[in-house]
Amino acid sequence: MSARRWSYAALIAVPLAFALAGPVLARAAPAGRAAPFGPSEWSPLGTDRLGRDVLAAALTGGQTFLLTGLLTVLGAYLVGFLIGVAAAAAPRVWLDDLLMRPIDVLLCIPSLLIVMVAAVRGRGSAVVIAGAIGLALVAPIARFVRAAAAGVVHGPVMDALRMQGQSRSFRYGSYAVREMARPLAADLGVRFTAAVYFLASANFLGLGFDTTSTDWAVSVAANKDALLIAPWSVVLPGALIVLLVVGTNLLVDDLLADPRAGAAVRRAGRDG
C-alpha cells in the first residue's frame, strides 16, 4: 500500500475514530457546563454556545451522523441497483419505460427540497430524514446503474454466454458483477458524499436533528455566529465532515485507478 493511499486512509480514520470511539472517550468530560464560548477545564478547545466542551461534543456528535449517512446510502443503492439492473435487462421496451419513467419524474424534483419537506413533516426524526435522503438518491443511482448495466447485459460476451445456454449460470452473474464493480464502486463514493451533503444541509438549516444535539452539522450551524471568538466550535466539527468526504473519495479514486487492479479485472473478463 503506497504512502499516498495510507494518507487517504488516515483522512478517513480521524472522523471514524471520533464517531466510533468518541462516546467512550467523552465519558471523562465533566458533566457540568461552563460559560458559553469560554475556556474549558477538560480541553484547550473551549466551550460551545451551550457551555459544553467542544472536544467532548465532537466526540459524541459523529455516531448518529455517520450511521445515518451510511445506512441511507446502502439502502438507496440496494433499491436503485435493483431498479437499474431490472430496467437494463428488461426484455421489452415498455417494461424499461415502466421502471424508468417514474425515476425521471423523481429526478425533476430538487433533492434538497425532498429532504427539507420530510424534515419539517417528520419533526427532525432521523428515520424520516434518512428515508427522504434515500428517496432523493434512488433516482440518480438507478439511472447510473441502468447505464452501467446496459453495456454489460447486452454486450457480446453476454450474448455468447446466452447462446451457450448459460444465461442463468454463476458464470453469467460473476462476469456481470466483475464488469460493473469498478464504476459502481466509484459511484458509491459519490453517493455517500451526496448523502453527507443532504444530511449536513438539513441539520445546518435547523431541519434535521435536535438543535441542541452535538451532531457535527448541527454544531457548525449553532456556533457559526461565534466563529471569531470560539473558532474551534465551528472548525472542529466542520473539519471532521470535510475529512470524511474528501478522504473517502480520494481513497476510492486511488483504488480504482490502480493499473494492477484494472489489469486484473480485464484478465478476469477475458478468462470468464
TrEMBL record:
Designated name of the protein: ABC transporter permease
Pfam family, one: BPD_transp_1
Subcellular location: Cell membrane
Membrane-spanning ranges: 65-90, 102-120, 126-145, 188-209, 229-252
Membrane-topology descriptor: Multi-pass membrane protein
Transport in keyword set: yes
Entry's family note: Belongs to the binding-protein-dependent transport system permease family.
ABC transmembrane type-1 domain: residues covered: 66-252
Major subcellular location class: membrane
InterPro entries listed in its UniProt record: BP-dependent_transpt_permease, MetI-like, MetI-like_sf
Keywords, ordered alphabetically: Cell membrane, Membrane, Transmembrane, Transmembrane helix, Transport
